[in-house]
Amino acid sequence: MQGHPTLRGVDRPILTHRTQRATRIRRLLGRIGLMPLAFRLWRTARDWSPRRMVNDYRLRRTASEPVPPARLLFVTSATSDVDWFFRSGEATREAFTRALVATGRPIESFRSVLDFGCGCGRMLRQWRDVEGPRFFGTDYNAQLVDWCSANLDHAAVAERVDTALVI
Questions:
Q1: pLDDT digit string, tens, across residues 111-141
Q2: How far is it, in rounded angstroms, from Cα 158 to Cα 69?
Q3: Under DSSP, is residue 120 helix (H, G, I), strand (E, B) or coil?
């Protein structure tokens, strides 16, 4: 089996000139404190397309409940793609549902459910129609908590788990 070329017998691929240059740029941006901004610009440029913008607009207009603004989506998942937000939330809900049913404790059997690190409500919104438990969310980011509190009326959301979230 032919492997990657190695550097002085060390079993690791030789870095290409392009990879070395990218590494140097990342290190420089990190040293001068611009890496977060550079990452956001790179990710936005990489993800942007007219088709996605039209799709996001359509999804926002037809959603049954408010969709977080792009900046909040990006904060929680490093993408502002509304379709990804919906699909990943639905897939995670299905995985949770299957796991809970397999243990003999479907989500409806709980008195309360806490979404610890609820972000902008990607999972909390999935439980809107569930009968039984009360839903709570908490997050360290006050902007995310404020958005959820204002837009997800089926769940109580706070910045800390304290008397505001009596479970």
A1: 999 999 999 999 999 999 999 999 999 999 9
A2: 19
A3: coil
CB-CB contact of 157 with 149 (8 Å): yes
**Burial grade of 40 (CB within 10 A; 0-12, 13-18, 19 or more):** middle
The continuous run of DSSP H or E covering 77 comes out as helix 70-77
pTM of the model: 0.69
| Amino acid in position 24 | R
Beta bridge partners of 114: 136
Give the separation between CA 12 and CA 78, rounded to whole angstroms: 29
Please tell me the distance from the alpha carbon of residue 72 to that of residue 66, in angstroms, as a whole number: 13
CATH of 50-165, one of 3.90.640, 3.40.50, 3.30.70, 1.10.260: 3.40.50
